[in-house]
Amino acid sequence: MINELDNSNVDVANQIFTVFQNSYQIEAQLIGVSEFPPLSRTLNEIMNSATRFYGCYENSCLAGVIEIAIKDKRLEIDSLTVDPNYFKKGIASQLIGYAFDFFDFTEAIVETAVANEPAIKLYKKHGFVEFKRWTPSHGIQKLALSIKNTL
């Protein structure tokens, strides 16, 4: 079941924070870095974020979170994380599908590390196409993908 999450609620924000930490620790290992910017995001930053959070629950546990911003009909996926206990269960695909069905948008974009092959494969499976590569100041090479909504 997917629901909007009230990230301003400390208990909910703690659940989001836990999923982020668990997932991003695995991603940092996957891409081979010890300093990974998403791991430095604080509970307070989550609580005060203006983005929208949606969570997928399995057995009343928060298993995955998608964080979204809508800007001029552009859907921006700011984060998509799944707790490692729920990997390989289709939760990320469910969250992407939910966002695509729920929001009225003309284009969706997402960014990830170039070395994060599982994420790139997931996004391409949903029709995303790479349009940009760059290396930010933190040194982790990134790429951006997008998809046009043809509906």
From TrEMBL:
Outline the extent of the N-acetyltransferase domain.
Answer: 1-151
Which keywords does the record carry?
Transferase
Gene3D superfamilies according to UniProt: 3.40.630.30
Q: Which SUPFAM superfamilies match?
A: Acyl-CoA N-acyltransferases (Nat) (SSF55729)
Q: What domain of life does the native source organism fall in?
A: Bacteria
Per UniProt, what is one GO molecular function of this protein? acyltransferase activity, transferring groups other than amino-acyl groups
Q: Which InterPro entries match?
A: Acyl_CoA_acyltransferase, GNAT_dom
Q: What is this protein called?
A: GNAT family N-acetyltransferase
